[in-house]
Amino acid sequence: MQRPEAWPRPHPGEGAAAAPAGGPAPPARGREPAGLRLQEPSLYTIKAVFILDNDGHRLLAKYYDDTFPSMKEQMAFEKNVFNKTSRTDSEIAFFGGMTIVYKSSIDLFLYVVGSSYENELMLMSVLTCLFESLNHVLSPHKTKAGARASFCKDPALYLIKQWKNVEKRWLLENMDGAFLVLDEIVDGGVILESDPQQVIQKVNFRVLQSAKEQIKWSLLK
């Protein structure tokens, strides 16, 4: 009896879906439309964080990738973003293929920049954490009793004043503290923390450790 003809082996890359000799060929897989492709999840969410004054001049900035590799390109980007956002009431802008969330405070504009497909709520959580942490670290300290009394008199007005409590003068006088705050929130584009209370505790700990080291070295001299 004649042996049945063996199935041909699939060529590399064809897999088990190869059709037998003489049979109908499997339908070719069409290419997936580019617009339907999902972006690979990434921890590197933040492209940049910067703070400008009310004239659009840089006060603090950190960039976490090479989208704008030179200082000139960064400054031009910041100026363009400021011109687009400084006279609007919105808190989200889409510019140059990027998603930007921002907030103004007296004479400051705070910006957090992500890619075009980043979740706006995630970017906004970083912005809110940054602002509230800076508000605590940079603002003149109030007594707990005074703050409690202000809150009890008019909670809404108290919260508005708290939100409007960061300004250029305090930022310039405490730039080291501002960078400490930012480094506790974002590191290399990765979001480390979005809870301002945790950020404040970590910054206070780092400041305390630094003070201890300075005292130790001064005693050893």
UniProtKB/TrEMBL annotation:
Residues 13-22 have a biased composition (Low complexity). Residues 45-138, 161-205 form the AP complex mu/sigma subunit domain. It comes from the Eukaryota. It holds the Pfam family Clat_adaptor_s. Oligomeric complex that consists of at least the alpha, beta, beta', gamma, delta, epsilon and zeta subunits. Belongs to the adaptor complexes small subunit family. This is Coatomer subunit zeta.
